[in-house]
Write a structure and sequence with these properties.
Number of helices: 16
CATH topology: TIM Barrel
Order of helices and strands: HHHHEHEEHHHEHHHEHEEEHEHEHEH
Strand order of the largest sheet: 1-4-5-8-9-10-11
Oligomer: single chain
CATH class: Alpha Beta
Length: 354
């Protein structure tokens, strides 16, 4: 593997000194980019794009051709694991992801295999290898997975849900069934992320999109416990370098101290959490990633720049900040506004690292 020319992102995650605050965007390879829409059109549909090594590599690199980003993130989907478990993932136009089969009983859970990357999700590991090769050391590559709880919500509901009612009912009424499912998912996520690391991912992020829908005790029992299990089982060093792990729970700001105790290197923050207060709460235990409201990218470049300046000032000087949005960039954003955001971070952040 070629030597890394820009390791600012990895050093920031490890709370090491950097010259500026590194920046990347969740969902940075996405529908807001006309070049992405053209490649997706070539692939035919979203899943075909994920499963085509050459095209998945192409779209991963597209935002890096436009912007001075400090990391690439593997182009894939969080629902690859349930798909590999045989639930039959498909996408309904305007409706989002759907599964042909659901998991609603202990018998359903027992029928599921534990999956890994190289054997069951070969196309993902192939994409990681292709992207690492194409990056040629330009910036690090982030691998990722959905959290066990987040994957479970889709598997029990059969798709997206507003209140996760069926999934919560299963957790509260038949906890042993839910724990059996979450344990199988945690084993699968661990194996999957480790295979991504072996294939070339240099950092990994666990997306706990729906952990914030749980109550305080339920979050600890059904979400955080299994993310800690994954972090414990991850490869910590590869190719002679630490492989940092990022935990991101949307609407999880009230649990930062517990999240910092998992052993993860960094926590992702959504925009509802004050980053300065978060830094005081976690101290020097973890780096923080975030956390501009993605809707701010719909404002003027001048207003975007002001917001970047505010968040940098709130975090303050020193190590341990990776700038990002508080969730994924949305399809209607003008690419010029995304550029204004990234350039503002690059231009305004060096003064916090002198």
């Amino acid at each position: 593997m070629s030597e890394l020319k820009n390791d600012t992102f990895l050093r920031a995650l490890m709370r090491q000194p950097v010259d500026y605050t590194p920046v990347w965007m969740m969902r940075q390879a996405g529908r807001y980019l006309p070049e992405y829409r053209a490649t997706r059109g070539k692939a035919g549909d979203f899943l075909s794009l994920c499963k085509n090594t050459e095209l998945a590599c192409e779209v991963t690199l597209q935002p890096l051709e436009r912007y001075p980003l400090d990391a690439a993130i593997l182009f894939s989907d969080i629902l690859t694991i349930p798909d590999a478990m045989g639930l039959g993932l498909y996408f309904e136009t305007g409706e989002g992801p759907r599964f042909r089969k659901t998991v609603r009983s202990m018998a359903d859970v027992e029928a599921l295999p534990v999956v890994d990357g190289e054997n069951d999700l070969t196309y993902v590991c192939d994409a990681v290898r292709a992207i690492r090769s194409a990056l040629n050391g330009r910036v690090p590559l982030i691998g990722f997975s959905g959290s066990p709880w987040t994957l479970a919500t889709y598997m029990v509901e059969g798709g997206g849900s507003k209140d996760h009612g069926r999934c919560k009912a299963l957790a509260f009424d038949e906890p042993e069934t839910m724990h059996a499912l979450l344990d199988k998912l945690a084993q699968s996520v661990t194996a999957y992320l480790n295979d991504q690391i072996r294939a070339g991912a240099q950092a990994v992020q666990i997306f706990d999109t729906w952990g914030g829908a749980l109550g305080h005790r339920a979050y600890q029992e059904f979400s955080l416990r299994y993310m800690k299990q994954i972090v414990d089982g991850l490869i910590k060093e590869h190719d002679g370098r630490a492989v940092p792990a990022i935990l991101f729970t949307k609407n999880g700001g009230q649990w930062l101290e517990s999240m910092a105790d998992t052993g993860a290197n960094a926590l992702g923050l959504d925009w509802t959490t004050d980053i300065g207060a978060a830094r005081k709460r976690v101290g020097d235990k973890v780096a923080l990633q975030g956390n501009m409201d993605p809707a701010m990218l719909r404002a003027s470049p001048k207003r975007i720049r002001e917001e970047v300046a505010t968040i940098l000032a709130e975090y303050g000087s020193g190590v341990g900040h990776v700038f990002n949005l508080g969730h994924g960039i949305t399809p209607e954003v003008d690419p010029e506004h995304a550029g204004a955001f990234i350039n503002a971070v690059r231009e305004l952040s060096p003064e916090y690292h002198r």
